[in-house]
Design a protein that fits this description.
The protein folds into 2 domains: 17-57, Orthogonal Bundle (Arc Repressor Mutant, subunit A), CATH 1.10.10; 71-204, Tetracycline Repressor, domain 2, CATH 1.10.357. It contains 9 helices and no strands. It is mostly helical.
């Protein structure tokens, strides 16, 4: 008697946690945070939703990993800045750009930080740059936290406005240049950079006699 050989269906390739995070970033950027569900993510990877829990026990830990990945893409200074203010300014602007690179990026990072699950590298980087100005560790860390809240909050606001602009529900667009802000709503990049400069001016005035702080 001839026995027919039965071929099993080809198995989907095994996915790594890195694959899951990359796929989650893709959904986030194309569709936004509300559509980043475990079901949609599993479908995009061609696996069952239960397979995702081998890598991440819940959605919060997945979003924390996504937040870490967003922050990890923050560009770094090619060389050490001579002035601590330049270093802080660069780090703040670089984080702002990294958050803007993905739809709802600021919201994802804010959530991870609020829950204490991820994105801590953003604050550590800012604190290290501030500490170069001669400030003690406590002041540097608290100042970095305050600046981080500003960066995330302002970027989140910008992303909401940009999404509203794309839907045609905003009357006045962002003023992208300080000179344009005089006759329009002074929002977006113009306000962000001004906010960082004001933060640095206030921090610089806190301890004017610090010996290790470089001159402008």
């Amino acid at each position: 008697m001839t026995v027919k050989s039965e071929r099993s269906e080809p198995r989907a390739p095994r996915r790594s946690s890195g694959d899951v995070v990359v796929a989650a970033l893709g959904i986030l950027d194309r569709q936004g945070l509300p559509d980043l569900t475990m079901r949609n993510l599993a479908e995009s990877l061609g696996v069952q939703a239960s397979a995702l829990y081998w890598h991440f026990p819940n959605k919060q830990t997945l979003l924390a990993a996504v937040a870490d990945e967003i922050v990890s893409r923050t560009r770094t200074r090619p060389v050490a800045a001579d002035d601590w203010r330049d270093a802080v300014h660069f780090d703040a602007m670089a984080l702002h750009d990294a958050l803007l690179a993905f739809k709802d990026g600021a919201e994802v990072v804010s959530s991870a930080l609020a829950l204490g699950l991820g994105a801590r590298e953003a604050g550590r980087r800012l604190a290290a740059s501030i500490e170069r100005g001669g400030f003690d560790r406590m002041i540097a860390e608290r100042s970095a936290e305050a600046l981080l809240h500003f960066v995330i909050g302002q970027t989140w606001h910008e992303q909401q406005r940009l999404q509203a602009d794309s839907l045609g529900v905003v009357v006045e667009p962002f003023a992208t240049d300080p000179a344009e802000a005089s006759g329009a709503t002074p929002e977006g990049p113009a306000v962000f950079e001004l906010g960082v400069d004001l933060f640095l001016a206030g921090l610089d005035a806190r301890e004017p006699a610090a010996p290790s702080r470089g001159a402008r």
